[in-house]
Write a structure and sequence with these properties.
alpha+beta, OB fold (Dihydrolipoamide Acetyltransferase, E2P), 3-stranded antiparallel β-sheet, about 25% helix
C-alpha cells in the first residue's frame, strides 16, 4: 500500500489516473471505483447516478455522474464493456465513497477487451508516483481511512 498525504493507493489494483478510477480484475469481471485522492478532492459526495445494469459503454464513456458540494462531473469507464452490477449501498449512501473508496466500489462490468485495455491502465506503484503531483496540485489530504 502506498500513501501520500494520507491518500492511499493500493498496489494490487489497476488505475486510470486520467479518469481517477481504480479497477480490480477478478474472474473476467472488472470492479470499478473512485480513487481516494479524487474522493478527497470532491469533498463529501451527496449524489451519484450510475448507468443501469446491461448498459454497454466504451472505454472513456461516462458510467456515472458524481455530485458533491464542490464538484459535479463524470466518472468514466476505464474499460469498454457492459455494466453487470451497481453497488446499491453507494447509490443510496454516496458518502461511502469518502469513507473508503476502495471498499465501496461503484460498479462491476464485463469488459469486452480486457487483455488489450488493461494494458492501458497503470499499476499501483506507478499510479502512486503519478498521484503525488496531482495531490499536491489539488491541495488535498486524505486523512487515511
Amino acid at each position: 500500500m502506498s500513501a501520500y498525504k494520507g491518500c492511499r493507493i493500493p498496489e494490487d489494483l489497476l488505475y486510470d489516473v486520467e479518469y481517477h478510477v481504480w479497477v480490480k480484475m477478478e474472474s473476467g469481471t472488472a470492479t470499478v471505483g473512485a480513487t481516494q485522492p479524487a474522493a478527497a478532492y470532491a469533498g463529501e459526495v451527496i449524489y451519484i447516478k450510475v448507468k443501469d445494469v446491461g448498459t454497454r459503454v466504451e472505454r472513456g464513456a461516462i458510467v456515472a455522474t458524481i455530485e458533491s458540494a464542490k464538484y459535479m462531473g463524470p466518472m468514466r469507464a476505464p474499460l469498454g464493456g457492459t455494466v453487470t452490477e451497481v453497488n446499491q449501498d453507494v447509490k443510496s449512501s454516496p458518502a461511502l465513497l469518502n469513507k473508503d473508496p476502495y471498499a465501496n466500489w461503484v460498479l462491476k462490468m464485463a469488459p469486452e477487451r480486457p487483455d488489450e485495455e488493461t494494458k492501458l491502465l497503470t499499476g499501483g506503484k506507478e499510479a502512486a508516483e503519478r498521484y503525488r503531483p496531482i495531490i499536491d496540485e489539488w491541495g488535498v489530504e486524505c486523512g487515511g481511512g
